[in-house]
Amino acid sequence: MKTHAIRIGEERRELPIIDVGGVSVALLNLLGDPALVEAAARELGEALPDDVEAFVTPEVKSVPLAHALSRNTGLPYVVIRKTEKPYMVDAIKRTVRSITTGRPQDLVLDGGDVTRLRGKRVAIVDDVVSTGGTLHGLVELLEEVGATVAATMVVFTEGDPRDDVISLGHLPLYPGSDASEA
């Protein structure tokens, strides 16, 4: 299997290159890698704008990063779910398309979290932003509930370079579905 080397602080990893339907990506998975999460949280925390009052993250892979940023800064965080749960009251939804899922998926904010975000300046925290589909849906959802997106902070951008996010680096996209040529 081909890999792509990354470094965050002193942490080095070889990310597997996988096919996600017509394009191959270097797959960053923060789940179960506390050393990499902590390194990313330290570096992103240094770039955090002073006026941010809370973090917002989509589930699942970026939740440990939002948690570490919250612990390091003392700011709260809210998780936007990808499915509506029976315990949610007055949930607010957006449907988006992510490069890694290749199909529509929901972003769901529990109505109970709306008061935690309304009137706040928030930073969206995610692992990777590529096409921006999830990011766009998050921004719309947050604006609908009265939050202001003050920053978007990701570990890596992917694909076309972006200047609208704070990131620690950039990952290339590999053409075709044959990662062996990457």
Low-confidence runs of at least 5 consecutive residues: 178-182
Structural class: alpha/beta
Q: What would the principal axes of the Cα set say about the shape?
A: globular
Average pLDDT for all residues: 90
Radius of gyration: 16 Å
How many strands?
12
Helix count? 4
* N-C termini distance: 10 Å
* Percentage of residues in helical conformation: 10-25%
Largest sheet, in brief, is: 6 strands, parallel
Describe the structure concisely.
With 182 residues, this protein is α/β, with parallel strands linked by helices.
Explain what you see.
The structure is a single chain. This protein is of the alpha/beta class and 182 residues long. 24% of the residues lie in helices and 37% in strands. Helix 1 crosses helix 2 (63-73). The relative contact order is 0.20. Mean pLDDT is 90; it is low at 178-182.
Which terms summarize this structure?
182 residues; alpha/beta; six-stranded parallel β-sheet; four-stranded antiparallel β-sheet; globular
Q: How are the elements arranged and paired?
A:
Blueprint: E1 3-8, E2 11-19, E3 23-26, H1 34-46, E4 54-58, H2 63-73, E5 77-80, E6 92-97, E7 104-109, H3 111-117, E8 121-129, H4 133-144, E9 148-158, E10 166-167, E11 170-171, E12 173-175
Parallel strand pairs: 4-5, 4-8, 8-9, 9-10, 9-11
Antiparallel strand pairs: 1-2, 2-3, 3-12, 6-7
Helix pairs in contact: 1-2
